[in-house]
Design a protein that fits this description.
By secondary structure, the chain is mainly beta. Helix content is 11%, strand content 39%. The chain has two domains: 190 residues, Immunoglobulin-like; 104 residues, no CATH class. The strands form two sheets. Strands 4-3-7-8-9-10-11-12-13 form a nine-stranded antiparallel sheet. Strand 8 and strand 9 form a beta hairpin.
Length: 301
């Protein structure tokens, strides 16, 4: 690898977090506990532990049996749990990023479908103190798994990379956010993931549109909390129900600069949602401050 300037190396040491789609594969690390990280039983490109979080079947390439794999549905921004006429889906470039945790590590999967490949890939990590943005090349030391294969659509290819990072990067913060941006076939794409803590359990605010776009009547975004570790959320002393989730309504309260935006939790309540968890401290999360990433502001800097 090309030697980085001293200031850049110091920045890497502070964050310990960089991702790329063009890295060199490193040996896989053994996982602790009952579940194993980086295992993809059905070979659809989604690790089993990520599929547990998504609610898809880790033993079936196409959970909803509509002819398009779970992975390609996520890249096409369709629902892998709902059958639809996939012949009506026009092939297009797409970017998808998601994460899960196991033990003291979290895994970030980034995949892109395009005709010409991904370029200008960048990654950002924001917390309540600051935001860092780095180019993809800096991720190579953290690469755990990489793949490239043809899409089901002729002429289209899928690039994929999964990286392993210390969980402390996220768990030491009350709230944080990760953004991935890339140019695919000449068009800018982005994905954001927002994390918070409820009942001391590190979780993601899963917002259906993936961009804080679903909202209540007054425009506030709404998202359901999902534990980052699918096998770990809800153990004693923080028990939960397997069929409810903490749903939070967020109100934007200010732009923090550099692409960061702050949201205040204005409502929080448990509502039914399959394969999720109801945190006993859900209601007390009202007034929490959630850190998000404003992609427009980020790219404008």
């Amino acid at each position: 690898m090309r030697k980085q300037p001293a200031y850049f190396a110091a920045l890497l040491g502070v964050l310990g977090f960089w991702v790329c789609l063009d890295g060199v594969q490193q040996p896989l690390q053994a996982a602790a506990g009952t579940y194993a990280a980086l295992v993809d039983t059905d070979g659809d490109g989604l690790d089993d532990l990520l599929e547990f979080r998504l609610g898809t079947n880790p033993e079936a390439v196409d959970t909803d049996a509509d002819g398009l794999s779970d992975h390609e549905e996520l890249l096409a921004a369709t629902d892998p749990l709902v059958w639809e006429d996939t012949s009506q889906i026009t092939p297009a470039a797409g970017l998808y990023a998601d994460l899960y945790a196991l033990g003291d590590t979290f895994y970030l999967m980034v995949s892109a479908v395009s005709q010409s490949g991904a370029t200008a890939v960048k990654y950002s990590l924001a917390n309540q103190q600051r935001i860092f943005t780095v180019p993809a090349v800096a991720a190579r030391p953290f690469l755990a798994k990489v793949d490239q294969h043809s899409s089901s659509n002729s002429g289209w290819n899928i690039q994929q990379a999964t990286y392993a990072f210390p969980l402390s990067m996220l768990s030491n913060q009350p709230s944080s956010a990760i953004a991935v941006t890339a140019i695919l076939d000449g068009v800018q794409f982005s994905q954001t993931r927002v994390m918070t803590k409820v009942d001391y359990i590190l979780s993601e605010i899963r917002i259906p549109s993936g961009d804080l776009g679903r909202s209540t009547g007054n425009g506030d975004p709404v998202g359901g909390i999902s534990p980052l570790e699918p096998a770990g959320g809800g153990e004693p002393p923080h028990p939960g129900s397997a069929d409810e989730v903490c749903v939070q309504t967020l109100e934007a309260i200010g732009n923090m600069g550099g692409g960061r935006v702050a949201y205040r939790v204005v409502e929080a309540a448990c509502m039914p949602m399959a394969s999720a968890i109801c945190f006993t401290g859900c209601a007390t999360s009202v007034e929490d401050i959630i850190i998000g990433i404003d992609i427009i502001g980020l790219l404008g800097d």
